[in-house]
Known about the structure:
The protein is of the alpha+beta class. It has 9 helices and 10 strands. Strands 1, 2, 3, 4, 5 and 6 form a 6-stranded antiparallel beta sheet that branches. It has a 4-stranded antiparallel beta sheet with strand order 8-9-7-10.
Amino acid sequence: MAIVSPRHRVGDGSAHAKVILIGEHTVVHGSAAIALPIPAMTAHARAAHASNSAAARLVPEGRPGVLRIGGPGFRPRTGPELAVDAALRRWKITGTPLTVRTDTRIPVARGLGSSAAVTAAAIRATAALVEQSLSDTDLAAFVQVGGQHSHGRAGGVDAAAAVSRGPIQFRAGVHAPIPIAGRALLLVADTGVGAGTREAVGIASARLTGQSGLELLRSAETLTESAITQLAQGDWKAVGRSLTAFHELLANLGVSSHILDRGVAAALEAGALGAKLTGGGLGGCLLALTDHPDTATGIRERLHHSGVRHVWTLPIEGSSK
């Protein structure tokens, strides 16, 4: 089936960043993970027929990029290109080449899901251009195609979190919302060092084998399930303990680093209820949890003194109903 949308038409799409609260790496092996959206960090995309200069009017305010999809000799080489191409093939759409311009304000290589968000925005923009309906389930599946290319053995939590509108638990390819009681603050600190996700996945996977690996997976599952219960109860002190314990588990897997460990220690010394790395590790970002705004100020200052580049504050709140 040929593309029938008018040549002057454009399609726009957007998606947000995410942060993994607990469960990274072990989620690839079937354990649960918890992820939270970061609505303030977004990626945008505009799709158009390649001959339409309107596609160029997406103002690059963050990190701009251009995807060229289709046309003679086209071979998708990047995660977003593979994902958009997979969507077009699913819709049985062929025709003139498309241009998808992307713009992300999400720091890249920091474990915040920048690649997944850019891919989700590009797919949404393409769907709007060619007038195709797009369910969240299908969108997550297409984003996962890109994630497998970008990060190797991707667990799927990035793809699910990129399209979710609230906190989710993720296990074995299935995600569902989780109840949260009360309110807390999560400080997300960027170390300024790029996360080595693909390398970290390989390191963690190698260590999650044999009897010792099974024991680590059981520990990870216990901590994550405990955190789900603690969030529903609004027991933030217990959540914090679970986060810190999970950081220790990730450090044992070999995916932490000196700057991450230093930041975690600084946050805890400043009164954080818990702290851990987030995402792939070997750099990237770390998290610190508090249930009091005044404590958040002190934690932020200590994190900056420890050497992190930026600190963002993410409210965590919900209802147990």
